[in-house]
């Protein structure tokens, strides 16, 4: 049995509510925000690994278990932390007050703005129980974008995986982020480019920074990712979360657009280009490592949105940056269209970010990602 008698003495209950919306950005920083209340100004946390029960009687048939368990395992995989969540199932009655951490589907606001909610209670600064509720009125997608005919690098909609990871950071004792690049933002949180669906939703560097500070361990982690989103520090929800948005589409023009989330990255823009034309774009480099990384980034032209550094055409310019542990760097970048492109053809510009530290990374697949829009080569270039 998972249930135990509930001691109501000094019981503190907090609800973290997460809203549906489209996302936005500013310059990323390296910080994290913990759940606090008048009795624990330093922030609540767990004192040991915790079992989390996924309720099969409330969720419909399908791959709900995997869609929830896989983000849970990505938290466990963060290097330099000791906290592990153990997934289990249980058909008992669910609800706050039984000393069991549960994830279940229930009615929240009848297709309103609330996607999911996390409730927890603590004694002093010690978390005792946390429950996550998904709204049963939402049109949930339990798969990954490709299952619904969408590109992972521009996907939107009510997907379980990114919502689950957001709520699990509430479960771990963290609240919303209003000026940092994090899964604790709202909006279009990123899907990473990985071979395995289980790894496509992954804690961002700022999220890892928090886990390593609150639940410190000794393991190392080396990984760099290229991503297409950023938080908008000027667009904050009523619950204190910045909205995360996709960057503008690459385009030629007369200079950078002032808004990184405008439709196109250039003023007086065009997406019809010739070899040698200057193209403006924006992208994010995320350092998942618990060490500083020296990173260089290049853009390649691909006909099929899959990178092959041996056959795809490399655009002009290389960008370099040193990114601190648990930090992300946003690039305002421009490049020249390479020679050898085919007249009339469409290409996906792909950014490829690689570290030069000599590390063996957890994954090299997530080093590259297509930018948010295609470019067309003019049929006639003088």
Task: Return residue spans where pLDDT drops below 50 for at least 5 consecutive residues.
Answer: 1-30
SSE pattern: EEHEEEEHEHEEEEEEEEEEEEE
What is the typical, i.e. mean, pLDDT? Answer: 88
Counting DSSP H or I runs of 4 or more residues, the number of helices is 3
The largest pleated sheet is described as: 7 strands, mixed
Number of domains: 2
Radius of gyration: 22 Å
Fold-level CATH name of the largest domain: Collagenase (Catalytic Domain)
Quick one: overall form? elongated
Structural class: mainly beta
Kindly estimate the percentage of residues that lie in beta strands according to DSSP. Answer: 25-35%
Features:
382 residues; Immunoglobulin-like; 7-stranded mixed beta sheet; elongated; disordered N terminus; mainly beta; 6-stranded mixed beta sheet; 31% strand; 2 domains; Collagenase (Catalytic Domain); 3 helices; 20 strands
Please characterize this protein's 3D structure.
The structure is a single chain. This protein has helices spanning 64-76, 160-171, 205-214, and strands spanning 12-19, 50-54, 85-89, 101-106, 114-123, 126-135, 186-187, 224-227, 229-236, 242-246, 251-252, 272-273, 278-287, 293-302, 313-314, 319-323, 328-336, 346-355, 368-370, 375-377. With 382 residues, it is mainly beta. The protein folds into 2 domains: 12-219, Collagenase (Catalytic Domain) (3-Layer(aba) Sandwich); 247-377, Sandwich (Immunoglobulin-like). The model is unreliable at 1-30 (pLDDT under 50).
